[in-house]
Amino acid sequence: MKQISCPQCGQKIDLNLVACPQCHAAQGLDALAGIDPDLRIKNQRLAVWFSFLLGGLGIHRFYLGQYMKGSLYLLFSWTLVPTVLGWVDAVRTLKMSPFSFEQRYCKKPKFAY
Ligand SMILES: [Zn+2]
Fold this sequence. Notes:
The protein has 113 residues and is mainly α. Helix content is 46%, strand content 5%.
């Protein structure tokens, strides 16, 4: 059986799996397509890149389901303050363990705003 390592937690997993059994990160193209909206699978690395490159527009906040914060980033994007905040978010997300990332962003949207 061919195996790959999960891009999110490094666990060796079967190539054909659509989601990592350890951290539930979507694999391959499914990571971008979103196989099941109820699972709220988020790719941590993608979130880091969004924060870093598009943080000034709040794209990473929208990606993580925080639409209120995303709107604020977008609203104040002309001040360039959200761009700096985006870099801070990128570093913060980068340092976050896959487990706490999942705890924080991959749950039901109740507490995310
Ligand atoms: Zn994983």
